[in-house]
Amino acid sequence: MRTHRAFTLIELLVTMAVLAILSAIAWPNYLNYVNQSKAATAQQAIATAMGALEQQYLDTRSYPASDTIADTHNYFTYVYTPTGNPPGQSYTITASGNGVLSQYYIAASSNDLRCACLACSGNPLNGFSASLNSCPAGSVPW
Known about the structure:
alpha+beta
């Protein structure tokens, strides 16, 4: 007599169920880590721009009237706003997420205040300005 060596249908169904449960848990966590890495890229872009702006301020005693922050992946929309009296003595940079990152908001100012709100229902950084001394409610420093 020959013995057959194979998986039964029940064993295959149990294996598939275990894999489905594991992937249902792992997939949202994976997406969260991917989105956080994209937000870290935006923070790095803002920090790089801040360094260049500070260098220009040291050279000319004024921040530029406009500045462009590159985002090769189009994950965020950046807005640079020179402020101050006289104009060009301070600035703010805000980044708002695009697409699946639409609930991500990041901001920084010339007084080195850096705030972020990731996965927010509204934009707590809407009134972000260079005159603030702490992050607005609903956001955290980065």
